[in-house]
């Protein structure tokens, strides 16, 4: 049955936000706080903060399989399993069943999804770094892809705006490569890490800092107002935080939007299409399918924000065909779905640390040490372009050191109750270059159970990434050796594909020229200005830093522009 | 049976070729391109369960005095945990390699051995496994922001019996309520994060 309800009052809003994750939440907050009546549409189930974090307060022994993934889950969440043990009983509930939501891999792509309120903001790594000035300029200088239509200065106030609201714990370092932000008190580095930091500065002039992480080390008044409390240092963030200490849409932006009483949220509702009115030359609303009842419906608004996640936002544009946009809304340039980027990871080194045996740590740090990019920076010049940062840290071995150690019996058992030696490990996050041949598109002959065409991925790392990976591993080993660490082991996992960084982006890039880009400098679709795309799809280049804070800053900036334009009747 | 002789017998059995059915099953697995589906049939006989329990208890025995007893693997349910985990979380290669090792030990009449004979068998198993694991290049690695991994080179043969039973015994014991509370200082909610100095004899924190 096709219920084609006309644009009645109940289905009409000032703005529609597609998606409730990292950027959807932020769009809803900004737009409602600026006075707009907003409908947020989430394709997945509803999760309520904090009562639906089913596993948050469970004890280790409450999990039947103790953190391991069952063969059944590994089959149901087959793409997720490529990352590791996320599909276990602790955190599996916050990920999407891949079997029920299939996609096609012309070349392998690791697509990890989170269809529920809050999306991937429920289990992001929370690492929050600003892009630096060069990140916005490198494409133009090096002739890669296209130039960003904005510069660091355009985004700077919005970074501050987002950091204040989100709450980022971090240390100011005064570095051009890693611009400082608005920080809550930093978390400590551990003793061997402080030693490492000192050696890196002395021998390489490379800074090492503690991770900048969206966990409240010291909540401010605007955090507590939303019910958010201080981090308890359990490092069980991925289960959902009952204290609201780490930032998610559920703990932060959605409660803020709810305070305005101007937010409505629809769950279990898949947006299949954007409705385009050729006469008005604008989008008028969206067509949706209830994922459980299959019932269709239409909703209408003056502006539409696409925040479905980079791949799904692009898919939605591609699936929105009209006589004006035969290849998908805003796809005159044929760039929608192209230029997929991510960060490549799964490469680095581990080592053992001699000494520091009377040093220990109370509490679990939901964070890591961070080594900012040092390659192709300043006087450094490599055979490849761009660079990488490292994340990792030191810890004392626990009982699981016994698995690979000799021995068993009473003394062995007793020994495993004490902290073992210190070990250290860090892995790189490398920049991925924009390449139009790295793409996703829709296969209209293959539909999912809601009749929506499946996404086909056809993308892979290029020479630049592969060359950089060797350096990531070797440089990590070299730095560990310089610090006097022992048993240094490098690794470069061969089975890593694009997507595994879960920083997928670039499929509707911003640019100045409508012939080569999808979005303008305020994230508007070039020839359909009342549609904004402000998730990872908008990215013109990837930098090597974790991208969420940049997505949110772009979202806040676009929302500000949209509301001003609406008031001036320009939209 | 002399201890030396027992070990020789075990060595012959473990070092020898696979049985014909095992080989056939492995060939079948190697030919199939898709991963083994779902929960496969894996179960232990009562006798095998007893052997698993005895080996788990040998790895983590009950210790301490009556007043201050620390439970052993059997006390906290590790034997049943091992069987359940193999059934639920492992696929056919590990089912085969586990059964191969266990069958050899069963055939050597492990349950009829005295304590020192058993110890000799397990020590022998550990040394054999060490050599096999070395070839698999076990590496500790990191993924993403906050996830530690153990990378093991993929080969068609499942992990050896001793590695599986030792790993699952330690996991089952040190994550059980009894095992955690007897072994570590268990902290549910740390509430703070601090560099501290270790006191002599201090136990690890568990969270």
Q: Structural class given helices, strands, pairing of chain A?
A: alpha/beta
State the low-pLDDT regions of chain A, or none: 1-5
Overall structural class of chain B, as computed from helix and strand content, comes to mainly alpha
Helix content of chain A: 10-25%
The DSSP helix count of chain A reads: 12
The termini of chain A sit apart by 34 Å
The major pleated sheet of chain B works out as: 2 strands, antiparallel
* CATH architecture label name of the largest domain in chain A: 3-Layer(bba) Sandwich
Q: How would you explain this protein's 3D organization?
A:
Helices cover 23% and strands 20% of the residues of chain A. With 571 residues, chain A is an alpha/beta fold. Chain A has two domains: 264 residues, 3-Layer(bba) Sandwich (FAD/NAD(P)-binding domain); 204 residues, no CATH class. In chain A, the strands form four sheets. In chain A, strands 1, 2, 7, 8, 9, 10, 20 and 21 form an eight-stranded mixed beta sheet that branches. The longest helix of chain A is centred in the C-terminal third of the chain and has 20 residues. Chain A is globular and about 80 Å long. Chain B has 207 residues and is mainly alpha-helical. In chain B, 53% of the residues lie in helices and 9% in strands. In chain B, strands 1-2 form a two-stranded antiparallel sheet. In chain B, a hairpin with a 3-residue loop joins strand 1 and strand 2. In chain B, helix 3 crosses helix 7. Chain B is globular, with a radius of gyration of 19 Å. Chain B starts with a helix and ends with a strand. Chains A and B meet through helix 2, strand 13, strand 15, helix 9 and helix 10 of A and helix 4, helix 6, strand 1, strand 2 and helix 7 of B. Chain B: This is Gluconate 2-dehydrogenase subunit 3.
């Amino acid at each position: 049955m096709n219920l084609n309800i006309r644009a009645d009052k109940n289905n009409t809003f000032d703005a529609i936000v597609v998606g409730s994750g990292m950027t959807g939440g932020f769009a809803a907050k900004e737009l409602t706080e600026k006075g707009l009546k907003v409908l947020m549409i989430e394709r997945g189930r509803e999760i309520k903060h904090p009562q639906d974090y089913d596993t948050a307060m469970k004890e280790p022994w409450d999990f039947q399989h103790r953190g391991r993934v069952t063969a059944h889950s590994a089959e149901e969440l087959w793409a997720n399993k490529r990352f590791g043990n996320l599909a276990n009983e602790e955190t599996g509930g916050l990920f999407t069943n891949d079997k029920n939501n299939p996609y096609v891999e012309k070349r392998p792509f690791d697509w990890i999804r989170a269809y529920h309120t809050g999306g991937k903001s429920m289990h992001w790594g929370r690492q929050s770094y600003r892009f630096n000035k060069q990140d916005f300029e490198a494409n133009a200088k090096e002739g890669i892809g296209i130039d960003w239509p904005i510069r660091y200065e355009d985004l700077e106030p919005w970074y501050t705006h987002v950091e204040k609201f989100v709450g980022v714990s971090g240390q100011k370092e005064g570095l051009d490569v890693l611009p400082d932000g608005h920080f809550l008190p930093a978390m400590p580095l551990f003793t061997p890490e402080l030693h490492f930091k000192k050696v890196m500065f002395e021998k390489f002039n490379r800074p090492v800092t503690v991770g900048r992480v969206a966990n409240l080390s010291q909540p401010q008044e605007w955090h507590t107002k939303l019910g958010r409390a201080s981090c308890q240092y359990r490092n069980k963030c991925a289960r959902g935080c009952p204290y609201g200490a780490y930032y998610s849409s559920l703990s932060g932006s959605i409660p803020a939007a709810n305070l305005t009483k101007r937010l409505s949220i629809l769950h279990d509702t898949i947006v299949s299409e954007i409705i385009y009115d050729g006469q008005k030359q604008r989008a008028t609303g969206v067509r949706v399918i209830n994922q459980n009842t299959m019932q269709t419906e239409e909703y209408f608004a003056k502006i539409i924000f696409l925040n479905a996640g980079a791949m799904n936002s692009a898919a939605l544009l591609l699936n929105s065909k009209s006589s004006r946009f035969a290849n998908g809304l805003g796809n005159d340039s044929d760039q929608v779905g192209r230029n997929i980027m991510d960060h490549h990871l799964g490469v680095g080194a581990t080592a053992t640390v001699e000494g520091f045996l009377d040093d220990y740590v109370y509490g679990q740090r939901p964070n890591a040490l961070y080594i900012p990019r040092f390659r192709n920076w300043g006087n450094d010049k490599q055979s490849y372009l761009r660079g990488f940062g490292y994340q990792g840290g030191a810890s004392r071995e626990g009982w699981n050191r016994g698995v690979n150690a000799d021995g068993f019996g009473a003394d062995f058992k007793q020994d495993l109750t004490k902290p073992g030696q210190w070990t250290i490990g860090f892995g790189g996050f490398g920049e991925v270059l924009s390449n139009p041949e790295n793409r996703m598109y829709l296969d209209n002959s293959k539909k999912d159970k809601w009749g929506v065409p499946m996404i086909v991925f056809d993308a892979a790392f290029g020479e630049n990434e592969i060359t950089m990976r060797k350096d990531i591993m070797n440089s990590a080993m070299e730095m560990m050796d310089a610090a006097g660490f022992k048993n240094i082991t490098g690794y470069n996992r061969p089975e890593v594909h694009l997507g595994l960084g879960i920083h997928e982006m670039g499929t509707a890039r911003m640019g100045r020229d409508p012939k080569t880009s999808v979005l303008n400098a305020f994230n508007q679709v070039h020839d359909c200005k009342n549609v904004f795309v402000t998730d990872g799809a908008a990215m013109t280049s990837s930098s090597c830093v974790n991208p969420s804070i940049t997505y949110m800053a772009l979202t806040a900036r676009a929302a500000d522009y949209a509301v001003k334009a609406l008031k001036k009747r320009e939209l | 049976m002399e201890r030396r002789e027992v070990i020789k017998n075990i060595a012959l059995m473990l070092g020898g070729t696979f049985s014909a059915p095992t080989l056939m099953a492995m060939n079948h697995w190697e030919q199939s391109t898709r991963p083994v589906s779902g929960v496969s049939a894996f179960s232990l006989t009562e006798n095998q369960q007893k052997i698993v329990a005895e080996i788990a208890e040998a790895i983590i025995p009950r210790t301490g005095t009556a007043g201050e007893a620390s439970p052993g693997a059997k006390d906290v349910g590790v034997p049943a945990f091992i069987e359940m985990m193999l059934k639920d979380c492992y696929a056919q290669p590990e089912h085969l390699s586990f059964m191969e090792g266990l069958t050899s030990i069963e055939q050597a009449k492990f349950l009829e051995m005295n304590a020192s004979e058993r110890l000799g068998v397990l020590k022998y198993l550990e040394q054999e496994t060490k050599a096999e694991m070395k070839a698999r290049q076990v590496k500790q690695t990191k993924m993403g922001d906050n996830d530690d991994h153990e990378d093991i080179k993929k080969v068609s043969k499942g992990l050896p019996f001793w590695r599986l039973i030792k790993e699952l015994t330690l996991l089952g014991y040190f994550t059980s309520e009894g095992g955690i509370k007897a072994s570590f200082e268990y902290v549910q909610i740390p509430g703070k994060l601090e560099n501290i100095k270790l006191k002599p004899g201090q136990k690890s924190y568990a969270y």
